[in-house]
Write a structure and sequence with these properties.
Blueprint: H1 8-20, E1 26-32, H2 42-47, E2 52-58, H3 65-77, E3 81-84, H4 96-103, H5 105-113, E4 121-126, H6 133-141, E5 146-147, E6 159-162, E7 167-171, H7 183-192, H8 202-216, H9 220-225, H10 233-243, H11 255-267
Parallel strand pairs: 1-2, 1-4, 2-3, 4-7
Antiparallel strand pairs: 5-6, 6-7
Helix pairs in contact: 8-10, 8-11, 10-11
Length: 284
């Protein structure tokens, strides 16, 4: 499968981020806990150099908990502040304020020495599409959120949100990089739904997922679908279609329907807690 997807509005979003980076103190990047490295945008490291950095491992309720802990340690070793959250349920979200303050401690102390006491920390929230950025912002800001229009950079597509007296957020549209240098990154993002299903082959995706689960999470497919896991992956998909009565006209088994079912159930966590990449897969 060859993944290429970079709509024009993402070029605009990247340019917008470049223009506004000078206004902020810390870049808060949401990544998907199931694919922490693949969902981390490499452009942001370049755009945000000389800024404080916070990685939020989101959707922790869907990921393998042991691997999430390992990813947390991995990013801390790289020099990032890290927090684990589940924006949908609000788990861990309240603690993020404190993590931002801690990450910017040096700046706050420097401001105090200069006699600047009440300047809020300005944070930019970034993340690729479908990583849960809007859900996080809504959960983080809650009902107290107010847009402040008298700041530079308030135009269509981005907004300042006054969180409390200590923190202001600059929201930006999600951005994705122009091309995937490594096709496995494209595959992982397609599996979690960050690339629109309409432009990928769902049956191929489902077969890749079966292959990964057979190797890394033996027992889960058998438990969920009653299939013989040691079978060829296409046969496993056929068996899922049979056991779940995914039928086409004429009563034949419909592999496309079975593929959609499998991907939906993986994405919603019904198959189990699954992480698609591990720290040892990274280059560093």
């Amino acid at each position: 499968m060859n993944f290429q997807w970079y709509p024009g509005h993402m070029t605009k979003a990247k340019r917008m981020m470049q223009e506004n980076i000078k206004l902020i103190d810390i870049v808060v990047e949401l990544v998907d806990a199931r694919v922490p490295l693949s969902s981390k945008n490499p452009d942001i490291d370049e755009l945000a150099k000389n800024k404080y950095r916070l990685i939020l491992l989101n959707k922790t309720d869907l990921a393998d908990r042991e691997q999430t802990d390992r990813w947390e340690a991995y990013f801390k070793k790289q020099g990032f502040a890290v927090a684990k959250v589940n924006s949908q349920r609000g788990t861990g979200v309240k603690a993020v304020s404190g993590v931002i303050q801690e990450a910017c401690k040096e700046k706050i102390e420097r401001d105090h020495r200069r006699g600047i006491k009440n300047r809020p920390i300005r944070a930019m929230i970034v993340g690729i599409p479908n990583v849960g950025k809007s859900t996080f912002i809504n959960s983080f800001a809650g009902k107290a959120c107010t847009k402040t229009g008298n700041k530079p950079g308030v135009t269509k597509g981005k907004q300042w949100i006054k969180l409390n007296k200590n923190i202001e957020l600059l929201d930006t549209p999600g951005i994705l990089w122009p091309k995937f240098e490594d096709q496995i990154v494209g595959l992982r993002l397609a599996l979690i739904g960050s690339i629109k299903d309409e432009i990928v082959n769902r049956s191929e995706l489902a077969i890749e997922l079966i292959s990964f689960l057979q190797e890394n999470y033996p027992g889960l497919l058998k438990k969920r679908y009653g299939v013989k896991e040691e079978a060829d992956r296409v046969d496993v998909l056929m068996e899922i279609a049979k056991n779940r009565k995914c039928l086409a006209k004429g009563g034949e088994y419909d592999l496309e329907k079975a593929s959609i079912l499998l991907l939906d159930e993986f994405r919603s966590g019904k198959i189990g807690y699954i992480t698609l990449e591990f720290p040892e897969d990274s280059d560093s």
